[in-house]
Structures are given as C-alpha cells and as structure tokens.
Amino acid sequence: xxxxxxxxxxxxxxxxxxxxxxxxxxxxxxxxxxxxxxxxxxxxxxxxxxxxxxxxxxxxxxxxxxxxxxxxxxxxxxxxxxxxxxxxxxxxxxxxxxxxxxxxxxxxxxxxxxxxxxxxxxxxxxxxxxxxxxxxxxxxxxxxxxxxxxxxxxxxxxxxxxxxxxxxxxxxxxxxxxxxxxxxxxxxxxxxxxxxxxxxxxxxxxxxxxxxxxxxxxxxxxxxxxxxxxxxxxxxxxxxxxxxxxxxxxxxxxxxxxxxxxxxxxxxxxxxxxxxxxxxxxxxxxxxxxxxxxxxxxxxxxxxxxxxxxxxxxxxxxxxxxxxxxxxxxxxxxxxxxxxxxxxxxxxxxxxxxxxxxxxxxxxxxxxxxxxxxxxxxxxxxxxxxxxxxxxxxxxxxxxxxxxxxxxxxxxxxxxxxx
Length: 419
What we know:
By secondary structure, the chain is α/β, with parallel strands linked by helices. The protein has three domains: 16-67 and 173-335, Rossmann fold; 70-160, 3-Layer(aba) Sandwich (Rossmann fold), CATH 3.40.50.1100; 340-416, ACT domain (Alpha-Beta Plaits, 2-Layer Sandwich). The chain is 42% helix and 17% strand. The protein has 17 helices and 14 strands. It has helices at residues 22-31, 45-51, 69-78, 82-87, 96-107, 122-130, 142-156, 167-173, 175-183, 198-210, 227-233, 256-265, 274-286, 298-305, 325-338, 355-365, 398-410, and strands spanning 41-43, 55-59, 89-92, 112-116, 134-137, 159-160, 189-193, 215-221, 268-272, 314-318, 342-350, 369-376, 386-394, 415-416. The strands form three sheets. Strands 1-2-10-7-8-9 form a six-stranded mixed β-sheet. Strands 5-4-3-6 form a four-stranded parallel β-sheet, with helices on both faces. Strands 12-13-11-14 form a four-stranded antiparallel β-sheet. It is globular.
C-alpha cells in the first residue's frame, strides 16, 4: 500500500464505480441533516496516557439504531427512483445493517423486508421489527441469509440494499470522516474497524481529500481478516473459517468498491486478537462508561495492543453499541480474565466439616472476591474422602492474581485449571 504521509492525494485517485469524491460525501452529509446525529467526540484520559497523545472516541454507538449504519442506508434508499421505492427494499443482516435499513426505509416511507439468521439475538430481531421492517428468519449463517434476501429481490423486484458494496452506502458512511475533521481539526490518526470496508472507505475518501496528512488506519479481528490477504493479492480474496466475537466486522470477502478505495487511500490495516477485543470492550464500559459491541471496540483494541504505533491526536471510531446482554456478559468475563482480573481454578479438599470455611478464609486473607463456588463429591478421580471445588474469583490484576494462587499453594492446596 502507498505511503500517504508524504504525498498528498488528488481529489479522486480512483476510477469507475469506486470514483467517489469528497463532494459525494458532502452531498450525503446534507441529505442526512436532521436524520443522523452528529455523534459526540469524547476524550479518553486513560488511552491518552497510554498512547502519549490525545485520544478521542467518536461515539457512533450513540447514533440512531446504535451504529453508523443508518448513514449509508438512508443515503442509499433516498437515492432510489419512485418505481424502486414502490417495489420496496430488502436486506440481509445479523444486526446493525438490519436496523439501519429498517429505520431509513421507515423514515422515507418505503416498505422493507429484512432477512436475519435463525440464531440472531432476540433484542436485534425485536429492534428491527420495531423500526418498521418485516423480519424473516432464514439460514444458520449470514451467507445463507444473504442468498435468501437476494432470491427475494429477484422474485419480487425489491431493491437489495448491500451493507457495504455500493457508492451511496460508502458516501453515507464517509460523513463520519467529515464530522471528525470538524470536531477535531488537529487529528493526525483516525482508527476505524473494517469488515467489508464501507466505513473505512468512506472515511478515507472524505479525510484524504481534505487532509492527506491524516493517517486512516483500519482494524480487523485476526480471526476474520479478509483485507490483509486481499491487499497482498491486489484483489478481493475470500477467506473461510471465520472465528471472532466481533460479528459486526465478521466478513469473509471485501466489497469490490470499498476494496479499491481502501487499497488506494487507507494507510494500513491491522489485526487484533480476541483477548484485545474483550479487553477493549471492558475498558470502554469501565473507563468511558460506554456500551460498545466488539466490532465497535476494535479501534480501541488496536490502541491497547500497540499504543506506540499511532501518531496523535488520535480519533478511534466506536462504530456500534448493539450487543446482546448474554454475549456482553461472556465477553466481559473473558476481558476480565485477559486483564488478570478473573481467576478460575479447581482444587481438592478433604470432605470434612470446616474444610470449605478454611479455604474461604485463605481467600479472604488474600483479598480475593469469590464469585462462585462449585462442588463435585463423586468422580473417578476423587478419593472416598475427597471433594473437588471449582472457584470463580475476581482479582485486581495480574499481580494480585499471582498473589492469590501463591497464597493457596502456601496453604497446601494443589491447583489446576477447570476443564
């Protein structure tokens, strides 16, 4: 990829369908006036100290429908002809795009049908219906859901609204970039999550035309990173076996149009681990008091993973906050474990009165908070007078975690990890 730090970009270095300009984004911004919120930019004291420069969070998790998706969806549907509007629109999504299309269509008086996977979180299904869409559950994975939506479009004449591979979608998402430049004119780096690439492409079109000195850095989950091999190959490459908690950026192949823009304008695409994503989501909740989904936390995960790699001031785009409460609970526990603040272990006790109280006394002296205690009294590995105890503990960090385990071993307990 080219080095954009020294050579300014022309207004549109692209050709064909990818030849979006900042004027397209500005027109989208006018269209979205009174529809999409100009979301706030919040400073992060913790991340600023970590990076060594000001870090701001662009809170698209506070956008209408809980993500940036309303921007592109509204611009795309608003551009339809009268005949196309009469035919209605159809989309496929597990969450954010579904809600964005549903609300945008409702605001524009257009009928919408949204296909969602059978296992989609119930809060997202309910929200999509509440925004006015007819929801149809089909398929176990998004690819099956997408095929069903496209078949519906062919059969009924409804217009298929792609989540990222369309000029109007990208122009709408690019309005995030215009707002960042207005809210933080001194910005030097913008970090944004990347799935199919619509948001990163739109931000890059707007920012590079007006401020070619500003770096635009994309972030993907390591378990669902289609852009690094695609950029290496020079064309979109499909990857299989996607595995990440970040459903919002879990895309197996870049969009054709956003890929060309990302290839030309985005300075770098990084990957982050699942532990980093969980830690970033936990940090957003605890330090920034913001509910952010894993995909929305991916820029923060990049900052946590390599804080010295970003020139400040930095703006990290929190792209969405729609997360199922049950998933949130699991992710936060995982994030606490990754941060050394959650300890799960097993040990054996002699099955006699007072044995558990003695164990809990050791933990109390070590200032460990006991979250859960489980007992197993029978099993092929246990002696006649033994009981196995599984403990879930909260600690204050890696050092305290080590102190707790040392205290248990000093007291004569043999520890092992849960199976």
